[in-house]
Every structure is written in structure tokens, then in C-alpha cells.
Design brief:
- The chain has 58 residues and is mainly α.
- The protein is flat, with a radius of gyration of 20 Å.
């Protein structure tokens, strides 16, 4: 956005970006804890580590 020379587009994006930020702040306490996301990310990391160990053997 910073590289764009389209001032109209930049203004529109700026307005919506601000509104989305405010909406996230308003709803953050109403969202469930990211437990599943944390579990999924831990599984991804475990798979990457396992693959890394497997590749070192060769």
C-alpha cells in the first residue's frame, strides 16, 4: 500500500483497515481461546523436526 501512487485506493484501504482493527479489538474477548490452533502448530513443528532428524541420517 505504501508503494502505491493511487491516493484514492490508499484512503479506502486505510479506512477499512482502521475499521477492521477496531472490530478485532471489540471482539477479542469474545473469541474462543486458540487451543486448536496451538495444537496444530505444535504438530507442524513436530513433523518438521522429525523430517529434519530423518534427513540428517543420510
Amino acid at each position: 500500500m505504501e508503494c502505491s501512487t493511487n491516493d484514492s485506493l490508499n484512503k479506502v484501504i486505510g479506512i477499512y483497515s482502521d475499521k477492521l482493527y477496531k472490530a478485532r479489538l471489540y471482539t477479542i474477548n469474545h473469541r474462543p481461546a486458540p487451543d486448536m490452533s496451538i495444537i496444530e502448530h505444535q504438530a507442524i513443528i513436530a513433523c518438521l523436526k522429525a523430517k529434519e532428524r530423518k534427513q540428517r541420517r543420510y
